[in-house]
Request: fold
Amino acid sequence: MASWRVLDKKYVLKTPWMNVRQDHVLLPNGTELDDFYVLEYPDWVCIIAQTPEGKYVIEKQYRHGIGKECYELCAGKVEKWEDPLDAAKRELLEETGYSSDDWTCLCKSAPNASAMTNFCYCYVAKKAKKTDIQHLDITEDISVLEVSEEELLELIRSEAIVEADMLYGLWRYFMVNKINI
Reply:
């Protein structure tokens, strides 16, 4: 299968968090599109953190895009100078005050492969313990909860967790661990 050929590109918006690029492309069938928009985001991470007691570290915070409070995994962006694992460790500590010495990369997904350039890496942090206070950004107001496996599964079943990349990581986690959802 042939790829699209970029004839021209220009940036419509550049910010520290994302860029919007307008591509003029030629499709393999000869069709030209002069306004295909690509969102350039940094890579993201999300973390399934489990305490030594078997509880899962979950966050609750307001998400302006959909205008509601959401239950979520700890997550954030990978800075330019970081690898995804270092970003996951930093985000878990900053957002929750938890840390771990037992990390595994569970999966890598493309949030929207048709129009976004980034990937999301989902990590599992076992034996996570509260070792610090939260160090939140000015835009963050995060409540941290420890929930049981059954409570986490109910958050998934009831669609209380809505972020697609987090859901993919959670589904993958439970499938790998052979738990019947």
